[in-house]
Write a structure and sequence with these properties.
Length: 168
């Protein structure tokens, strides 16, 4: 039901769909994968385009969740080969930038949701903050100035919706 109301709003105000960047570890334990999959599903239901780094772990899990709910997922890949992305991507963008592609992931989102990860995830958080994007830490990244931390997917979606309502 949320998706239909957002789709109707998009038709009347001519704004493009929201783009939500998701950052997280390339390797993740099953509980984090379940969290990422649920986030992807909820973002698809919201009508948002999901942008991620396109590889495994959190990136594959969020993409899987979004695609299972009819969503669109853009993966910005570190290599030049678009086949290096996970199988759930709707669009694969080979950048050839290695870790430098993290700035593109952060810049592509109207908001960034960060799940547990390591230095690459932290760099995406830093780039998003530097670019003035709202950052939501889902189950991780407490204590970083500018990161709104939430404990579960419903709270993350509420924070995403609030951030998107403030966008110009």
């Amino acid at each position: 039901m949320v998706r239909n109301s957002l789709a109707a709003r998009r038709r009347t105000d001519n704004r493009p769909p929201a783009q939500v960047a998701v950052a997280g570890g390339g390797q993740c334990p099953p509980p984090v994968a379940r969290l990422a999959t649920a986030l992807g599903s909820a973002l698809a239901d919201l009508g948002a385009i999901v942008v991620c780094g396109g590889l495994g772990g959190v990136m594959a899990a969020v993409a899987r969740g979004a695609r299972r709910h009819g969503g669109t997922v853009v993966g910005i890949l570190p290599a030049y080969d678009r086949r290096s992305g996970n199988r759930y991507l709707s669009v694969s963008i080979p950048s050839g930038l290695g870790h430098g592609r993290n700035v593109l992931v952060a810049a592509a989102g109207d908001v960034l949701v960060a799940l547990p990860g390591a230095a690459g995830t932290l760099s995406e958080i830093a780039f998003a903050l530097r670019l003035g994007r709202p950052v939501i830490g889902l189950g991780a990244w407490t204590g970083i100035s500018g990161v709104q931390t939430v404990a579960d997917v419903p709270a993350a979606i509420a924070a995403v919706q609030a951030a998107l309502a403030r966008r110009v």
